[in-house]
Amino acid sequence: MKNCNSVTTPVDKGVKLVKDPGGRSVDSKLYKQIVGSLMYLTATRPDIMHGVSLISRYMEHPKEFHLQTAKRILKYLCGTEDFGLFYKKGDQTDLAGFTDSDYAGDLDDRKSTSGFVFMLGSGAISWSSKKQPIVTLSTTKAEYVAATSCACQAIWLRRIMEELELNQHEATSIYCDNNSAIKLSKNPILHGRSKHIHVRYHFLRNLVEDGTIELIYCKTEDQVADIFTKPLKVAAFSKLRELLGVCNIQNSV
């Protein structure tokens, strides 16, 4: 891969992986080594998080198309080897989160993908891209489940900040691009339409009621967590990557 041609995004827009896309099987040991190495890199490169999460679902019986998708991430890294998270001096220390989901994005089991990121100042400090454990019946429910996972992470981050004497007395803002999910977190009257959702996901409602979390609407084009839920076009991907604080370090120092 040293002399490969670089690409502008980790995963090509519109790519949908399935367990058996046809084609020949590939060396599962090699595939697992590639995925494992990429997982290590996600600790400092949130821009590849979704792609790595995607290819990690097919470790058992990888096919040629899965390997090609993994190699594309390597090609992307070859073209962005000087990129990393850059935190600007003197930025504010208020914690803010973004949550999103890709409804029924997995073609094998129709489960959705949750994505979230927390920003502190100019850069991301915590992020995730993960397939949801349940099948939801609407976009609203998928967004609600994703927001609950995001809120749980917010509680953990708030406690860490308290130990660092960076107390956040006000509610932590979490930005969501689905108004119905926001209303569901605030209005118990809507419970009849969501009674099939496991009670643990209504933990979010308690956090909103006691003022620990505040869900705020944001436009889809400004939803930073969108980069963790699905492949994007070059322009959208580049914009969100910059908002994460991932940039060419050599040009930023």
Indicate the percent of residues in helices. Answer: 25-40%
> Tally of extended strands?
7
Helix and strand composition category: alpha/beta
C-alpha termini separation: 28 Å
Output the number of helix runs: 8
Protein name: Retrovirus-related Pol polyprotein from transposon TNT 1-94
InterPro entries: DNA/RNA_pol_sf
Question: What does this entry look like structurally?
Answer:
The two termini are 28 Å apart. 36% of the residues lie in helices and 16% in strands. Helix 1 runs parallel beside helix 3 and helix 4 crosses helix 5. It contains eight helices and seven strands; from the N terminus they run αααββββαβααβαβα. The radius of gyration is 19 Å and the shape is globular. A hairpin with a 2-residue loop joins strand 3 and strand 4. The chain has 253 residues and is an alpha/beta fold. The strands form two sheets. A five-stranded mixed beta sheet has the order 4-3-2-5-6. InterPro entries: DNA/RNA_pol_sf. This is Retrovirus-related Pol polyprotein from transposon TNT 1-94. It comes from Rubroshorea leprosula.
